[in-house]
Amino acid sequence: MGQSEDIIHLLRHKRHDWMNHLQLVQGYAAMGKQDEVVDKVKSLIAEAEQERKLLNANAPHFTLWLLSFNWYHDNYRLSYTVDKDGFSGERYDLSLLARSKRVLSVLLDHSDPDVLYEGDIYISGGAKEETPPLLEWRITGSYKDEAALKRDLLQETFITDVQMENTKQSVIIKAKMR
Asked: How many C-alpha atoms does 64 have within 13 Å on its Cβ side?
């Protein structure tokens, strides 16, 4: 797609997502579920605040990839948390994008297409241009071979740590990358 088509595609998806959220709020209100209305509105405000921080990071390629991630991956649901205002990804935009795509590629190699994986990318650091941001991936889901997944992630030179936490029904992966 060209740049204009990409923008329209993004806007179409964002509008669709917002309409889904608004219809949910409207449904709660119609049923008199005031607590759910308040909770959903608070959640939407928090999500919009995170989106604002990401959009202000001056990392357009990484931002576009992250904002559109869930639309292209059926069995992955990824959210993000930007640690603080002032995150600057301008100098690291293409590196963040390439490394994130590489992490995803390794995860996909070890994924089961019938499992829903949910996660969050925690973005910190990078407040000054000379300080690279730190991304911490937290993914929950059952992988085919956890030991091989960990080994493959650690072979990536930009990943500083991988922790596998076994819970009753899933594995939590924390992959920190610089």
From this structure: 12
pTM to 2 decimal places: 0.85
Domain boundaries, the chain: 1-55, 57-178
Residue recorded with tokens 């209305």: 37
Classify domain 57-178 by CATH number: 3.30.565.30
In tens, the pLDDT along 155-174 reads 998 888 888 877 655 666 76
User: Across the strands, what pairs with 167?
Assistant: none
For residues 135 and 122, give the distance between their C-alpha atoms in angstroms, rounded to a whole number.
6
Residue 154 CB-density burial (10 A; 0-12 exposed, 13-18 middle, 19+ buried): middle
Look at residue 67 in the predicted model and tell me its pLDDT.
92
Spatial contact of 143 and 149, defined as CB atoms under 8 Å apart: yes
Strand partners, 177: 135, 159
